[in-house]
Prior knowledge:
The chain is mainly beta. 0% of the residues lie in helices and 30% in strands.
Amino acid sequence: MSRPPESFTCVDCGGEAHLISFLPEDADPEPGSSLAYRCADCMERFDVVWEEDLEDDPETI
Ligand SMILES: [Zn+2]
């Protein structure tokens, strides 16, 4: 199980960008789904495509 971060550092102003997309409590987002974040300081919106377990090599399962 892995979940996207609730917030990350805004690349524009160094403030905190918070997740504004709804995430179900008991389910992970589908890989490839788009997650929206908005910076609390500069109000910049970031759309992040969620990719699960990027470090895992699918060939080794
Ligand atoms: Zn910002």
